[in-house]
Task: inverse folding
């Protein structure tokens, strides 16, 4: 398996850790590494784009320049879905997996052998940041050893957030709040045998949520800020948006994170669609500037793909009605001339079905 490190050397790397904790199980996100930061044992595979299917764990590496120490915080288990060499960098597409029970820096290092420990960045000749590797192949199955049960996931999430908040990159002055997509549920499922099941969650599978147009959905996000909220100079907000106009939010699209922890809920719906609709739900933190609280910056955004299935029985019925209405005048005319037979009737109705299909699907109308 792989140990993927993200450091405090740049703000973006810290934001990547917040994103890694925020993603629901099964969703994808990316980490990017320069090839020089790869374990030599992995370099050939990175160059040949053959790291797919590798299990991995993400850890945050905090380098304290004044104390010249390096600390590790275990964050999330992932699977490499795809690796791609782009120039001198390797882009890893990661699929979010288990939250991990916490390990101290000492205990995490204790699970690594001498070779692996020697590759972890440490202070040496460069006075500005630790030198070492940030993608390391390890033998220990830390992902399975530390995996949190489903009932313990939010506890493991809190533990990681608490450990990270001890560092300046996530401290109180940054106004960073950690968030995790906990569930996406609906109470509108009308299908037989499901009426008595109450609210049901939508599973993130095949890299997207499979939803039904016309239903109302609640997306629940657990937010946790170990250092507490700051309200004197503006408060961090959780915001949501969507790139598809068919998706409508029936609640406010931003919520103030003015408490240490909360379960936030956004509600959205669509009109009933005949055809499927693809959409992306975007969640992010809106962080105020200390000097100008009215000025806000969007950070730590994640995008969740969703597909709203169409109502195919109604789609077929509409096609048949259009086909019938289109074919009827021609059939009546042929009958009037007494030239109707099964072959001519079939050809007419087939042509009418094509017309109905084209009338229903916008993509065909535009072509």
Result:
């Amino acid at each position: 398996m792989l140990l993927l490190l993200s450091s405090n050397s740049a703000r973006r790397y810290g934001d990547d850790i917040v994103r890694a904790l925020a993603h629901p199980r099964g969703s994808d996100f990316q980490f990017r590494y320069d090839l020089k930061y790869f374990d030599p044992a992995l370099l050939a595979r990175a160059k040949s784009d053959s790291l797919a299917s590798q299990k991995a764990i993400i850890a945050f590496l905090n380098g304290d320049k004044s104390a010249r120490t390096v600390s590790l915080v275990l964050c999330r288990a992932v699977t490499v879905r795809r690796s791609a060499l782009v120039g001198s960098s390797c882009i890893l597409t990661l699929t979010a997996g288990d939250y991990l029970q916490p390990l101290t820096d000492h205990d995490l290092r204790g699970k690594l052998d001498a070779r692996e420990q020697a590759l972890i960045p440490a202070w040496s000749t460069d006075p500005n940041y630790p030198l070492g590797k940030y993608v390391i192949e390890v033998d220990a199955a830390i992902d399975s050893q530390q995996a949190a049960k489903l009932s313990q996931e939010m506890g493991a999430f809190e533990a990681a957030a608490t450990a990270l908040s001890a560092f300046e990159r996530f401290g109180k002055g940054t106004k960073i709040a950690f968030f995790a997509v906990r569930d996406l549920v609906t109470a509108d499922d009308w299908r037989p045998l499901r009426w008595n099941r109450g609210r049901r969650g939508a599973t993130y599978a095949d890299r997207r949520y499979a939803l039904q147009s016309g239903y109302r959905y609640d997306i629940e996000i657990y937010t946790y800020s170990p250092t507490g909220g700051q309200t004197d100079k503006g408060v961090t907000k959780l915001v949501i948006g969507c790139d598809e106009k068919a998706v409508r939010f029936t609640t406010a699209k931003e919520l103030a994170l003015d408490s240490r922890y909360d379960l936030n809920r956004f509600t959205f719906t669509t009109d009933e669609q005949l055809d499927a609709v693809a959409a992306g739900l975007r969640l992010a933190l809106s962080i105020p500037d200390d000097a100008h609280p009215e000025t806000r910056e969007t950070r730590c955004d994640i995008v969740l793909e969703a597909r709203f299935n169409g109502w195919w029985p109604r789609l077929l019925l509409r096609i048949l009605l259009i086909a019938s209405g289109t074919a009827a005048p021609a059939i009546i005319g042929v009958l009037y001339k007494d030239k109707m037979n099964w072959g001519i009737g079939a050809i007419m109705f087939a042509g009418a079905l094509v017309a109905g299909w084209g009338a229903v699907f916008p993509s065909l109308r535009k072509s």
